[in-house]
Amino acid sequence: MHYQAPADELARVPLFARCSKRELRRLASEAHVEQIEAGQKLVSRGAPSPCLYVILAGTADVERDGELLDRVTTGDIIGELGLLLDEPRNADVVATSPLEVLSLDQAGLRRALEAVSGLAWTLLATVAERLHRAQTSG
């Protein structure tokens, strides 16, 4: 089930915490919320990356070749690298509980980045942190 994200729900996501109410409403107009059942794949390795996801509620495992790479939960972002680089997904993401996720496609992300001051910097910091963790954990 898909529905438009309410702005007040987005305010609880760390990525959007510094956004004004006006910016949150603008962002909400670009995003949709999806419900994912436990055990269902949110993302499949090798698949195209048409959008990024922000977990609003629940947990999921990030896996590659059966190996657990990470566990993601409320507030975490999935798929931003694939979306920004226009690359296929590099891992599977499987819901370990019912998930509620915000999805934002490339065009919507571009419009949101142009309209919401500071969002680009916060997203860049999130991507940099993820890359740093990947380099230091392996």
| Strand order, sheet with most strands | 1-2-9-4-7
CA radius of gyration is 14 Å
CATH architecture: Sandwich
Shape: globular
Distance between the termini: 37 Å
Structural class: alpha+beta
H and E string: EHHEEEEEEHEEHH
Average residue-wise pLDDT: 85
Describe this structure in words.
By secondary structure, the protein is α+β, with helices and mostly antiparallel strands. It has a single domain (2-131), classed as Jelly Rolls (Sandwich), CATH 2.60.120. It is 36% helix and 32% strand. It has five helices and nine strands, in the order E-H-H-E-E-E-E-E-E-H-E-E-H-H. The strands form two sheets. Strands 1-2-9-4-7 form a five-stranded antiparallel sheet. Strand 5 and strand 6 (67-73) form a beta hairpin. Helix 2 (21-30) runs antiparallel to helix 4. The radius of gyration is 14 Å and the shape is globular. The chain starts with a strand and ends with a helix. The mean pLDDT is 85.
